[in-house]
Amino acid sequence: MYTKLLIIPCSQSKKGGNSAIAARSIDEFISPESSELLRSARRSAFQRSQTRLDMDSDAIPALFRYSGNMWSVEGFREAIQGALSDGLHVLVESGGYGLIRVEEGIHEYEASINRTAPIWRHVFPLVLTDYISRNGINSIFVAGSGQYLQILRKKNWWGGRECRWFVARMSGDGNRYRVVPRAIGCAVRDLILSRFSTASSWLTN
Questions:
Q1: Non-local CB neighbours of 14 within 8 Å, separated by 6+ positions
Q2: What confidence score (pLDDT) does residue 172 get?
Q3: For residue 83, which phi and psi values (nearest 5 degrees)?
Q4: What are the CA-CA distances from residue 188 to residues 34, 130, 178 (Å)?
Q5: CA torsion angle for 40, 43, 48, 53 (degrees, to 10)?
């Protein structure tokens, strides 16, 4: 499992609390050049209108900071936390921070991916190419919807590696802002708990 990478979206709601994991930064897994690229892009993202970063707030690992519908799916956090112990790489795609480890400490912030996409669509491929190369990743799983997936599919950063996608779409009745994130959360949780045996139901490029 050490050679697998999972990429998931952030959430607008960030009312998380106490963390039960040690914080780790993406900087530990990428080159100094990629780290500087991320830092510069983050500064640009938070300079955009209608964005906010509260540096006075506590830095809480993303796994416990985010509190939206995907993150609130029963067993979701526990599945990810267990997989991290086994060596799974998990990155979060954030409108403000760009790419972060799911254990990474982050402050309270507001930054819609729709506002910052022009920044990240050029940065993500470079950082991800570096990440998967440096960490020996050979299987990649990406879950999301809308703009989050559009940015990641702009360029082929995965090369010839296996890359599978869970594309959440609204079907039937209900609130799409609840139904779609929960579908992503359930798919990710089930993928991990099955030890990736359900991967065949995820799309390939």
A1: 65, 66, 67, 108, 109
A2: 64
A3: -70, -35
A4: 27, 24, 16
A5: 150
Look at the pTM and tell me if it is higher than 0.85. yes
Alpha-carbon dihedral sign for residues 193, 196, 201, 204 = positive
The torsion angle over the Cα atoms of residues 33, 21, 140 and 37, rounded to 10 degrees, is: -20
Residue 76 CB-density burial (10 A; 0-12 exposed, 13-18 middle, 19+ buried): buried
Residue (of 95, 103, 146) closest to 124 by Cα position: 95
Residues contacting 202, CB < 8 A, separation 6+? 141, 164, 165, 166, 187, 191
137-175: pLDDT as tens digits = 999 999 999 889 999 998 999 999 999 999 988 666 678
> Please, are residues 63 and 105 in contact by the beta-carbon 8 Å criterion?
no
Q: How confident is the model over 76-85, as pLDDT tens digits?
A: 999 999 999 9
Please state the domain count of the chain. Answer: 1
Domain that holds residue 14: 4-204
Residue listed under structure tokens 């910052």: 116
